[in-house]
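Hey, can you fold this one?
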Amino acid sequence: MRHLSRLAAFTLALAGCNYFSGADDIELSTEATTGGSAAPAYLPADGVSLASVAIYQGVERIVAKDGAGVAEGVPIVAGRDALVRLFYAVNADYDKEPVIARLFLDDGEPLEVTAPLGAGSTLDVLTSTLNFDVPGERVTTTTSFRAEILQAAAKTTGDNAAAVFPAEGTHPLYATSAGPSLKLVLVPIAYGADGSGRLPDTSPEQLERYRNTFYKLYPTPAVDVRVVEQPLVWNAPVLANFSGWQDLLNAMIDVRKNGGAKHEEFWYGVFSPSATFESYCGGGCVAGLSLLGDDPNQAWLRAGIGLGFTGEGVTMTAVHEIGHEHGRNHAPCGTNQGLDLAFPTQGAILDAWGFDLIARTLVAKDTNKDFMSYCGPAWITAYTYSALLSRLQTVNAAAMASRVSGARGGGERARSGAPHAESYERIGVGADGTLTWLAPLELDEPARGEQLDATVTSDAGDEPVTAQYFPYSHGGGGLLLVPRGEAKARAVGSRFGRIGR
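Sure. Predicted structure:
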């Protein structure tokens, strides 16, 4: 009689689950009883407690612990694949027989795993947990979940509430939308300084490396990679010691500006300045460069350059540089330039465990570094992951709003009405303080960088103006934009010195 009452209580709890979630088909497997009614075939396993539930989309996020939901943590991204781990503990009441673990996601069919349990789960051993591979389409902004560790009804008393979460109904995942994808545009650069006209590797195999490297690290449901058909021909030297990199980056900015780029696209020029990576970088080298900007609406800043050899080394450089295009500064390891002063850990060490969705392996917290540093092995912190998601959400939302409102989808986004061109004198600031006139730059909305006072000298005299400064991601120096007036500037003075024509 006592056993039957517990079965009834658990059946009522499941009925409550169905009512709470709207999932009419969430039910225990049933079998006929002598009385002609249906009884659950599986009930909560004795001697087992569900210690925590964690979801991994690159960075660990605990969603339940010790019987309570956890609402705070790294965001869960709707539409992105995930690994869900059920951490458990056992006591003497567990009979060492296999269990059936079930993960319910809304009203879909539950995911199911059958396995014997060990002595308990540990964070660093993937096989010590009950694991579910969850396809991205089952992770939505409204998804709720329920987890159960069960055994056949004949093997258990059925009254172990610690083997299920939540006790009744379902619990929300609190997933958020990042937008449809991260859009990466690769621009092949034909390197002619050595007379070769050498092109980078944009083979299908290398493009898949770009796609996989970005997917495993960036908080996005998908990574779209396309290659611009017309290469940028570049005949000036770009050397390992940073010489020539600034000029090529500014050319890349113009390519993006004039290439019909969409607001949400991140453009990245790739080139091979030598036959092999080893011959170029054997003694150390610069591998990539971009500009830093805090304003997500400055689409022209979403342009960078990097080495284009074969392999994952250059795709990791791209991940780093596109991180700068997302407004991220350096994590504090291996460099003192452009540091993120709010970075939460010393030495860029990870702040959470990770999981590689491509390699299907755990990533240890204490032995890996954030990829925005210069140290390795490289992974991503919850801090950087969250910041990238915030920027990607803003960029994708702005692009969608622009199209819905009827504003043009390509180029810099106009906030309202027709775009108004803003024209700037463009001055390169070298790491050594050298100033160089570059081609003027026209933008569809005002540049917004670090504001500084400048004086423009023209035939009309001296005029004080507010200039905008954008530092390079590496090597020191940056780009100075000075508003153009009706009279041609003969000289510009700022804190960086004075340059004349």
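The chain has six helices and 32 strands. Let me know if you want another pass with a different chain boundary.
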